[in-house]
């Protein structure tokens, strides 16, 4: 990882990830591991679902209950509309969070605060760092207000860390005049997974916020149920649904690291959304994948176009996938 991280030693670190699916949580695993190895004391501020995930890796850490941002998505393909409709609720939560961080600083007296895409998790008198690959949003030119708001929030942090390297997975999303440091790919998987005897033709990775995650789970389960062969699906506990399990489809809810690596090794092809954390995992694992951007989520649509030249990936839209031969 980048030297910005390696210089943080024997300090108290206050950390919090965005509650937007589990991508921000999973990608922070290698960061927290390194900080622990460097003798730091970590206080993780997160909700219960995030804590359950972290405890599988770090049962020894100190966890503080911290409310997430109030995302309420309709799940009808108008992703950016959902975000803007929720703007004032999000802004209110952000303002409240700033006060909560003040209280946390009084209790824990941290040397540094690290936020993974949480604009309100910072403090004026404590070095505050934000992790983000979206220094520039993939918005049309007329949506300049959104760009301005995003940049304004980022500038309030002392440092901006971009989880990318010479592979340039994030493309133009991380191109900005705003001062930032690239810290390398962040994936909980540390090496290429060992290929085993193929047990599953397709392995579906369900990710993203609700209800998009559950919709994708049920759609993929139904599609694979009429597809020849045996298949598997990995999903978070919040997407649990009895109807997802079929005779030829095994569903695993939040499997541990060992099971995840085993499933990747036993699958011929991965099917997933094109979220940034998923891309980093697949690059690290070197797995072939069919990636389907969430309809209306411009970030995923851009990442699909930008990374289309990588031979391990095949990108198809939701409409194209309906007739895609499996």
UniProtKB/TrEMBL annotation:
InterPro entries: Glyco_trans_28_C. GO terms for molecular function: hexosyltransferase activity. SUPFAM superfamilies: UDP-Glycosyltransferase/glycogen phosphorylase. Residues 253-309 form the Glycosyl transferase family 28 C-terminal domain. It comes from the Bacteria. This is Glycosyl transferase family 28 C-terminal domain-containing protein.
């Amino acid at each position: 990882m980048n030297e910005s991280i390696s210089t943080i030693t024997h300090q108290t670190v206050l950390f919090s990830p965005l509650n937007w699916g589990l991508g921000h949580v999973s990608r922070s695993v290698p960061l927290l591991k390194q900080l622990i190895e460097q003798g730091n004391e970590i206080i993780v501020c997160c909700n219960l679902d995030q804590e359950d995930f972290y405890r599988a890796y770090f049962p020894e850490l100190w966890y503080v209950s911290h409310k997430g941002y109030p995302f309420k998505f309709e799940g009808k393909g108008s992703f950016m509309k959902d975000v803007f409709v929720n703007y004032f609720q999000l802004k209110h939560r952000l303002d409240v969070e700033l006060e909560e961080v003040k209280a946390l600083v009084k209790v824990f007296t941290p040397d540094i605060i690290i936020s993974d895409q949480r604009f309100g998790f910072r403090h004026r008198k404590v070095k505050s760092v934000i992790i983000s690959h979206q220094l520039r949003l993939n918005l049309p030119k007329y949506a300049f207000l959104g760009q301005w708001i995003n940049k304004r929030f980022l500038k309030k942090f002392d440092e901006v860390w971009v989880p990318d390297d010479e592979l340039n997975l994030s493309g133009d999303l991380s191109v900005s005049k705003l001062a930032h440091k690239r810290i390398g790919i962040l994936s909980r998987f540390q090496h290429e997974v060992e290929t085993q005897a193929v047990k599953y033709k397709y392995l579906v990775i369900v990710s993203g916020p609700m209800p998009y995650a559950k919709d994708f789970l049920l759609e993929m389960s139904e599609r694979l149920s009429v597809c020849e062969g045996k298949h598997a699906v990995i999903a978070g506990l919040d997407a649990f649904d009895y109807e997802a399990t079929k005779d030829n489809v095994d569903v695993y809810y939040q499997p541990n690291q060992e099971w995840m690596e085993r499933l990747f090794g036993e699958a011929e092809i991965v099917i997933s959304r094109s979220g940034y954390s998923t891309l980093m995992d697949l690059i690290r694992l070197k797995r072939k994948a069919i990636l389907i951007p969430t309809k209306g989520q411009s970030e995923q649509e851009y990442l699909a176009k930008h990374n289309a030249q990588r031979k391990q990936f095949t990108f198809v839209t939701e409409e194209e996938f309906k007739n895609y031969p499996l």
